[in-house]
Amino acid sequence: MSCIHVIMNLNLTPFQEPRGVMRVLQLIFAICAFTTTANFSVDYQTDCSDLPKPTTWNIDYPFKFYENVCQRASNNESLAITADVSTDAQFFVATGVLAMLYGGFIIFVYAFLDELYKSKNEIPLADFMLTTIFAVLWLSSSAAWANSTSALKNVLDPQYAIEMCKHCRASNSGFNGLHSSLLLGFLNFFLWASDLWFVYKETYWFQTRQGPSQTPIS
Hints:
Elements: H1 2-8, H2 18-38, E1 41-48, E2 55-60, E3 64-72, E4 77-84, H3 86-112, H4 114-119, H5 122-155, H6 158-164, E5 168-172, H7 176-200, H8 204-210
Antiparallel strand pairs: 1-2, 1-5, 3-4
Helix pairs in contact: 2-3, 2-7, 3-5, 5-7
């Protein structure tokens, strides 16, 4: 009976308002952001004249690696690629996962507990504060991840291999997935920051500033 009671309380009215629509978009794009990053990998291939055939390394999340990709015994030339951007990558993914969890939770509240949401001043206020925190998290994690992405691309740049080892040739499979994750990160920041106004309108701060409605003097 409790499940039936919960279903009977389903209220889709908040999702006809901007605050509800924004929550659905936030949930979708948070999932897209962290899955794009966590599932991204790049193949780095080197062709060294001392080796019988090209060798390929797979670089994937969390992007912490050290690979000795070429070693020429004839003249002691070597080429190693190394990077550790795992902290920023994990920060970005963690932000996405937490945003997904909160987005799913607040969608449930809007859908089934909207009367309670509006009757308790503390709930909209907490929602506003958490929305602010997530907006800051998306901005900071996206900026950090953008910097780490640039560093990762520099290390895996084929031109870097040529400069470090004249007898080596290198190539990579591209970074389209990382570019997508960055765009999704800043899009998430925009969505959460834009939602602040709509959530703020539900708080008693906004409602008390509106003041009591005045009846016209006859």
